[in-house]
Design brief:
This protein has 22 helices and no strands. The chain is mainly α and 425 residues long.
Length: 425
Amino acid sequence: MRTVLIASCAGSMIEWYDFFIFGSLATILAQQFYPPNNPTASFLETLATFAVGFAVRPIGALFFGRIGDRLGRKKAFLTTLVVMGVSTSAIGLLPGFASIGFLAPITLVALRLIQGLALGGEYGGAAVYVAEHAPPGRRGYYTSFIYTTATVGLLVSLLVILATRRLTGETAFAAWGWRIPFLVSSILVAISYAVRRKLEESPMFTELKSRGRTSESPVRDAFGSSRWKLMLVLLFGVIAGHAVTWYAGQFYALFFLQTVLKVPFGTAYLAVTIALVFGTPFFVLFGALSDRLGRKPIIMLAFLLTTTTLYPTYHLMARAATGTPNIPMLAGLIFYQIVLAAMCTGPLGALLVEAFPTSVRYTGVSFVHHAGTGWFGGFLPLIATALVARTGNPYAGLWYPIGITALTLIIGVTFVREPKEHEMT
């Protein structure tokens, strides 16, 4: 189980590292790949390019989900790892706008699309693979480790960026040093691929295949019968709220510090890094608690707290950033948001894998997860930043995550059902 967990988590962490480097360097990439005459427009275009990768994730989930449910979990997430690594390294080698003009942003969008497709097949697949190895009564605990990989991936991307920035210096980093974190991905991918190749196939899938019970059309079967209703309930009653809570606390918080409060780059990254270090263990804590208390109560409590406390939290962040930034206070406020994200994310993997049968589990979990996180969460930085720019109100960006979590709370409390005794079929 330890080997399964390490290999699955390492691969997922690297894919998230690849994905988040782009968002973490959005302000610099805007200067590199878009016309320099309008900085605000270039930044919004960069965020839109970032969001494109999220938009196609459900398509990747269906494509790789079909592979995972027909040919095996291992084949699917070995492929996604390689595809993500190649596309990320290509971004690190891509000439900028000054060299090739509009071909630069066009190529960048294409590479982001490839990244999104790869991630669509990875994240749900890793959760399914771990869940199908985990013993009954411990599924929440083990799958929660997979859901720490996004946070760890973001943390590692921040650390690599900070280290590279310090080694190269500000001027060199802005000119060419930003490429190094993208190129580091190729080394990480090679190591992870070597580890994953040694894994065995999931025992539940192996048994299903030996009995000739694998699905001939996983996409059709995943949406067949009344499962489309289950998809909608999970999407609007769980995943949508999870997505905006996660991205508000870990990604929009960084954008808010840099673009709205004008906190210096190093200070903003330091506050977020401290919060991530102390907040990440809570994903596992809440996953383990869900094995005892149930998945639904913990997740719904997170949505309630996000709806009611996000606005005052950001007001306190603004106060902490006034004058000389209060780094401990900023880190503490972001830490609180990460705990909220952990509450609705730690139990999530177990809730999703228990909702689908083995024959369509890879497809079902991957699609509903990435439809929610891709469409609701991935567009949060763009929507929130655009609302602030349009209204002039620095807190207008919070209307979106607060509205989504409030709606998800109502639908979730009403329609989401706790899996009976956390069974898997």
